[in-house]
Amino acid sequence: MMYEKVLTEIRCVVGFEQKDLEILKEHKEWMTKMADVFVEEFYRVLPHCPTTSKLFQPWLEKNKRTKLKAFVLRWLSGEVSLEELVRIGFVHFQKGVKPVYVLAMISRLEQIFVQKWIEEYSTERELFNAFKRFLDVWGVFLVRAYYEALIIGLGKFLGISRDLIEKRVKPGADILEELAEG
Fold first, then answer.
1. What is the maximum span of the chain, computed from C-alpha positions, in angstroms?
2. Which of 39, 123, 139, 172 falls 20 to 30 Å from 61 in CA-CA distance?
3. Is residue 24 within 8 Å of 124, Cβ to Cβ?
4. CA 66 from chain center: how many Å?
């Protein structure tokens, strides 16, 4: 599947290996505690930022903390399927959640993780490095899902195939220059 290839390439660039996932699983009890912290941060931050509060308010009002925590636990255990992550990226795209907000939240979760890690595991760099690579892989993958949603949406809007879109947007082409010419 195309997503497997993309994920493999992202993991290669980030340097995420199977041993990183094993390290996270070895610390499952601590990661479970972190899932609680991450969910609380999600609910603490998003309602108070103007753009994200508008986008997430209906979802936050439904009080889906339990569902979100279950997802975060599966995600931190490496049990979330690629299709599920792609679907999440598509939904974010459809709801108007820009990639900058996804990356900003990932940065925030990383900051919290670092603080907790310093407090409890300051001598164990392995866990920190594994988690950092883990977050980077999934953040980049979700941004890729935005790209996929954009290409699919553009194809439907214009009534043309994905292949035609990708042939038109040549790798390395200066799109701004082409727009200025056309």
1. 58
2. 139
3. no
4. 20
